[in-house]
Description:
It is a single chain. The chain is mainly alpha-helical. It contains 16 helices and six strands. The strands form three sheets. Strands 1-2 form a two-stranded antiparallel ribbon. Strands 3-4 form a two-stranded antiparallel sheet. Strands 5-6 form a two-stranded antiparallel ribbon. Strand 5 (350-353) and strand 6 form a beta hairpin. It is elongated, with a radius of gyration of 47 Å. The N and C termini lie far apart (162 Å). Mean pLDDT is 78; it is low at 403-467.
Amino acid sequence: MSSKHRSSNATERRSGAAIAASPAEALEPTRAPQRPAGNRRRREARKLSPMLRVLNALLTVTAVGLGLFGFAAYWVSSEINKDGPLKEARSFVVPRGEGAHDIAKRLEADGIIGSQQMFVTHYLGRIMTSWLGGQALQLKAGEYEVPANASLKTVSEILGEGRSTLYRVTVPEGLTSAQIVQRLRADQNLTGEISAVPPEGTLLPDTYKYSRGMTRQQLIELMQGDQRKMVERLWAARQPDLPFKTLEEAVTFASIVEKETGRNDERDKVAAVFVNRLRQNIRLQSDPTILYGLFQGEVAWGRAIYKSEIQQKTAHNTYQIDGLPPTPICNPGKSALEAALNPAKTSDLYFVANGQGGHVFTQNLKDHNAAVANWRKVEQEIRAKQASSAASKAAAKAAQTSQPMTSPTPEVGETPPASQVPASDSTTAAATPTLKETSPAKPSSAAQTTSASADAVPLPVRKPKRP
């Protein structure tokens, strides 16, 4: 063998290649070579320990669970946000104490939502998210207006946010507490009973909004709370040196101002008259205090006042008592309270109706009596027109029925025949509130005789009586 061939064989042996002894041997299959040791070591390293296998299983389950949860969340979200089956808006009432399952059942029965199970699922989901810091869904009692095609989510938000249908009750200024209680009891959208008639003057007249199912007692307490806040705020901004020292006296004073005029632009002037009288120790002589003293909370405001009633001494009759009555005579409104605590700066002591819905304010008795005389003329003209109108109506009615015409029955504000006047009285006052004068002094017996023909109460006046 040549040296060149031997060198080639040596090279092949160094490279690890098999050397065939002959061409035939080269064609025969040989044993496969063993894998390198490095591959075996890598394969053995890939075998996991039991702990790693457990962790791997947990991760796999978690990943699958998260995937399923995400799919379920997406499906639930699409279900609660899609349009609901309601074709047109309608109201839905949630009574107090009703649970989520019962609410969901009625929502489905009323055709507002498509699935009560989905509503409960959404409700429970909101509770679970509240544990993580989210906002829980609290279904509130009330009456709600649900719009057409409202989604389940929208319905739950309407019920949860308390956006219920609001009702209104208007309490006019100048009603007594008993009259306000009667008004609330007549409102069918309120529930429950009122435990007791509140003290006079503790309720604030206003228009109040409430949801169906609110109790009457809750509304009373709301009115009392608003009244306290209003009075305290106005009391803090009152004029100095007023002739009353407590909030209670201020409310009593305001209640008289409230009943003396229905015009907001006159309240501060009326208040000024009464403030000036108190400062000069002159009796207030306010007609509404006569009525309240006789009938208390059941008073019929605007009814006729008889001479004998003026002379009756009650705790509230300011013709017979000095200073303020012991309690308010009604529940005054904001305007009257403001006027009472910030009256006009005048020297007026008198006022009388002017026949146009307002009053004439004067500082002395001479000017006041002139204003009274003018009012008498206006009053006679008004009564003549009322009598003529009543006679015309009676004549027309008699013509329609083909019956002989009889004497017409007096209407409100008309002087009745002598036979219809109460036995103890010879005159009556005009029943219409605007046809009323406020006299500054107690009438004398001579004045009573003069007024019998004038037929009006209070009577013509003399100088103010001081206590």
